[in-house]
Specification:
Strand order of the largest sheet: 1-2
CATH class of one domain: Mainly Alpha
Strand content: under 5%
Largest sheet: 2 strands, antiparallel
CATH architecture of one domain: Up-down Bundle
Radius of gyration: 23 Å
CATH topology of one domain: Rhopdopsin 7-helix transmembrane proteins
Order of helices and strands: HHHHHHEHHEHH
Structural class: mainly alpha
């Protein structure tokens, strides 16, 4: 049986109420700090570059880029929240019950908004590829601004309802001092599961599958047209590469989204109770957050204009007068 000397407490001065620190090797703790710190720096830096690029250069003020901007803002704040996750590496929360609830609440809001932004981006690409003639009339700057605003507002309101009990009574769910947990009822958990995971996944898969089918159809139609006027062998190679590239890009988007979000919701579904313990669920939460690090890579680094913006930002040329009018596209 362990003695008090063998057990590490979060608050040694509170012998009867303090939580125990989980036993972890020194190597495991150091590696956790390095990995989480790297993810945090990458997430905040990459998304900040996207925010500066789209906000500064007027040529990038388009409906699609406005969605990318909203996504980058939500993902940037996810990176900032990762600093609190780093504090939980030793399994203890030292900032009190109120800050704990605010941390969890902001985390829920920002991550759900990030997922919502991804759905909006999918819808934007769907209209652009499947209904190109109606894109300019259906997807306007004003409509996109309204959709983005509703995405943030709905996330805030929905998470207030999910974490209502925790916001009213901070710390009511903790079993010992040094714990940071959130509790919700079964209805709230089911609603969060459907609206934050199952629903978005279905929408993304359906839209992207439709986009993929249309893209392949267009590629084949183009091949048939070109075959009539050029050599058939060279055209086959080009079209095949185009189809593979389209499949790879769409596949990466869907697979990365599922890989990062599935572990979190699998843990939620299989958990024996309704508590989400931030310290013990650190891995799945970090996977959930890691998607925000990959978003700017998937959605922005694939665009040539981002590389041009990055060069102008790094060389500080954006500080020059009139740089916002630079030709980026």
């Amino acid at each position: 049986m362990e003695t008090l000397e063998e057990v590490e407490l979060c608050f040694p001065q509170l012998l009867n109420t303090s939580c125990q620190k989980p036993k972890r090797s020194h190597f495991e703790i150091i590696m956790s700090y390095i990995i989480l710190s790297s993810i945090t720096v990458l997430t905040t830096t990459l998304n900040l570059l996207v925010i500066i690029s789209i906000s500064h250069f007027k040529q990038l003020h388009t409906p699609t880029n406005l969605l990318l901007l909203s996504l980058a803002v939500s993902d940037f704040f996810v990176g900032l929240l990762m600093f609190f996750q780093i504090m939980l590496i030793d399994g203890c929360w030292y900032l009190g019950d109120i800050v704990c609830v605010l941390y969890l609440y902001l985390g829920y809001i920002i991550t759900s908004t990030s997922v919502g932004n991804m759905v909006l981006i999918c819808a934007d690409r769907y209209v652009a590829i499947c209904h190109p003639l109606h894109y300019s009339t259906k997807v306007t700057q004003k409509r996109v601004q309204v959709c983005v605003s509703l995405c943030w507002i709905c996330s805030i309101i929905f998470q207030i309802l999910v974490l209502k009990d925790n916001l009213e009574q901070p710390g009511s769910a903790i079993s010992c001092t040094g714990e940071c947990v959130a509790v919700s009822n079964n209805i709230a958990e089911l609603a969060d599961l459907i609206l934050s995971f199952i629903g978005p996944v279905i929408v993304i898969i359906v839209l992207y599958m439709r986009v993929f089918v249309v893209a392949v159809s267009q590629a084949r139609a183009m091949r048939s047209h070109i075959v009539a006027v050029t050599l058939q062998g060279s055209v086959k190679v080009n079209v095949k590469k185009s189809e593979i590239k389209a499949a790879r890009t769409l596949g990466v988007v869907v697979v990365v989204f599922l890989i990062c979000l599935c572990p979190y919701y699998v843990v939620v579904l299989t958990a024996p109770d309704t508590l989400l313990i931030a310290s013990s669920a650190a891995f799945v939460i970090c996977m959930f957050y890691f998607n925000s690090c990959l978003n700017p890579i998937i959605y922005a680094f694939f665009y040539p204009w981002f590389r041009k913006c990055l060069k102008l930002i790094v060389t500080l040329k954006i500080m020059q007068p009139g740089s916002c009018e630079a030709n980026i596209l």
